[in-house]
Amino acid sequence: MGSFSPLSAFANLAPPPQDEQIALTQVHDADPNEQKVNLSTEGYKDRNGEPWVLPVVRQTELELIMDTSLTHSKPSIWSHEKFIQAAQDIIFGSKSPELKSKIASIQTVSGTGACHMGARLLCDTITPNTVWSADFNCTTHGAIWDWMGVQKRTYPYSLPDRSGIDFERMLDVLNTQAQRNDILVLDACAHSSSGLDLEPGQWIELGAVCQKKGVFPFFDSAYQGFASGDPDTDVGAIRCFVQLGLEIGIAQSFSKNFGLSGERVGCLHVVLASSEHREAVFDKLGYYQRGLTSTPPTYGANIVSTILTSESLYTAWRADLKSMTDRVKKLRLGLYSELIKRRVPGSWEYLLIQASSKRISKLTTF
């Protein structure tokens, strides 16, 4: 009998779209040049280019190790109540029972898990035809909505020279082309494709457009406290939309503002028009969780909730945030000054107004 070579079930597997950031990191890691620098990473690094453990996080870890009341048992499907309440309080800033009764929250695998679960919920409820984003170069959002089978479209955001936001064109496109039950993906702060954020008055105008058009806003909050240095300022857009009475979704990540990228700590919040449907949404989120991770991990969540519920640790966290943002601003100023000093052609003022570690540069060669 002749040899038999069975056809693999994966023989016709098409390659996925390339993730540019991952590809750049792979090229960087393979480069033997000792002076190489990876400018595509988003997390905070120290002066040696190494990840920085926030002092308050290290302190909290040591305290938790000595806490004999902690176990490695799993939490509920939604998470420990202490973490959920702390995550809600830092985002919404209000402990109003009326507001809390309209919010359904669940711990997720960082912000990406929250984006995925939020997309699944919206597809099962309002069945959107289109999801709008300023830029789908963010592979995470693009891949998630591709999986959901929802059409992706972009709206204008930055001016061509990146000196500011083209707010009038943005509103015009949404006013004339967005349809009821479309999804509008928004960065709460440190805008992903530009580093430029809307002014408070512009958020109010945008919220009014969402109300008029029946568009559902979905916020990606990945940099709270690491954009301006003030956690309250960085969620002003979210609180504005809540005050306007809009139903919204929020993907909350603690990766960058706590330096916990490897622990994948996140939360999904769904703000409803009333408390009437909260339990239905809450149960649906639990159903999704059961099929995804069963229960969320506790290590990073314990760190976050401990810091956010301790007055002294919270104060220390605010100080760490200020240290990071002040250094980033200093580095931006240094880069700007060197470009001017070397008379590099172009306008570089935009480097001084971008938020957090976001640095969308017009430089193409070095």
Task: Tell me the layout of helices and strands.
Elements: H1 20-30, H2 55-65, H3 81-92, H4 97-100, E1 103-109, H5 110-125, E2 130-133, H6 139-148, E3 151-154, H7 167-177, E4 183-187, H8 200-213, E5 216-221, H9 236-243, E6 248-253, E7 265-271, H10 278-292, H11 299-308, H12 311-341
Parallel strand pairs: 2-3, 2-4, 4-5, 5-6
Antiparallel strand pairs: 1-7, 6-7
Model description:
The protein is α/β, with parallel strands linked by helices. It has a domain at 81-312: Type I PLP-dependent aspartate aminotransferase-like (Major domain) (Aspartate Aminotransferase, domain 2, 3-Layer(aba) Sandwich). Helix content is 42%, strand content 11%. It contains twelve helices and seven strands. It has helices at residues 20-30, 55-65, 81-92, 97-100, 110-125, 139-148, 167-177, 200-213, 236-243, 278-292, 299-308, 311-341, and strands spanning 103-109, 130-133, 151-154, 183-187, 216-221, 248-253, 265-271. Strands 1-7-6-5-4-2-3 form a seven-stranded mixed β-sheet, with helices on both faces. Strand 5, helix 9 and strand 6 form a beta-alpha-beta unit. The chain is globular, with a radius of gyration of 22 Å. The N and C termini lie far apart (62 Å). The mean pLDDT is 90. It is an enzyme of class 2 (transferase). This is Aspartate aminotransferase.
